[in-house]
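Me: I hope this is not a bother. Any chance you could explain this protein sequence and its structure tokens? It all follows right here:
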Amino acid sequence: MNFDMGESKDVQVEIMDQETEQLTTSPPPPTQKNYKWWLQIMIYIFFLLTGQTSATILGRLYFDKGGNSKWMATFVQTSGFPLILLFYFLHNPTSENTQPNPPSNLSLLFIYTVFGIFLAANSFLYSLGLLYLPVSTYTLISASQLGFNAFFSFFLNSQKFTPFIINSVVLLTISSTLLMFQTDSTESQEIPKGKYVIGFICTLSASAGYGLMLSMTQFCFIKVFKDESFKVVLDMIFYPSIPATLAVVVGLFASGEWKGLKREMEVFELGNVAYLMTLIWIAICWQVFNIGCVGLIFQVSSLFSNVISTLGLPIVPVLAVFVFHDKMDGLKVISMLLAIWGFVSYAYQHYLDDYYNSKSDVDEMIPHTLPE
């Protein structure tokens, strides 16, 4: 049976047109983010912002109403990890892809122990900062963690820097650095200058350590765990918290602060029950924050998780004005506006990346030439 060459070419053109129409009308390619992915991201963001804001406010409330134990304030940051067991029972492992060759138990033990000790040290530094600084100053200084995270991510995770990301990092770093000149304000006159400096240095050091931890977490997800399951997120919260909590307990007893806890509860201005509930809710809120933070690192990147964390920082100073009657002077307003500007700059870059990646994927799948 003979076919005319012209007819054959017409058939090919018709087939190519049908394929092109199918590609343009079919669902987005796998690399484009679908609604389920965005729903997960929104849940993680909600957990991070809610946990961070509530834990910071309650942590300051503990110190303001009579709490004075730095080690107890550190203990509640790490000791809520048994709550993560609930998520182990709730998540569905059947629909997830796991790594065929997971790292050895010895490697996992080393990673979790190092992260745990690092977590304990960071939490203690943050507790000192929250003890010696007004909560609004403390939270805005914490914005510097984004600059540290970007620096470490550049070397550990090959983070790409665009003008918008550089602008974001610079603005957020300047935002926190401005507060170095806050020591002569009316708000900080009640705090001895020496303690203010200690609080500033501790908070800045903790921010640097936190930025490094986030970058290392992303590095482990990509290079070590290579696991696409939600379980690896839970593991990265639960197991490091065990050595971290043990280290803090050792510090609590070695420092002798445990002897004053009963007296501390008795003189707490809001009462004994409020004292216990404050500590319990701080522990719960930090675990909610951890799920959101590590989840965003797993789904996107450590820098994105840190940017969302920075977004929540301006919320705390505003709430502190009403809860603790902190002063919101001009320097803090400028610092807060710079932090917001820095976040918007990074968020816009993330939008551009997602848009152009999706567009390029579609373009690659659509044929631009016809076969001979």
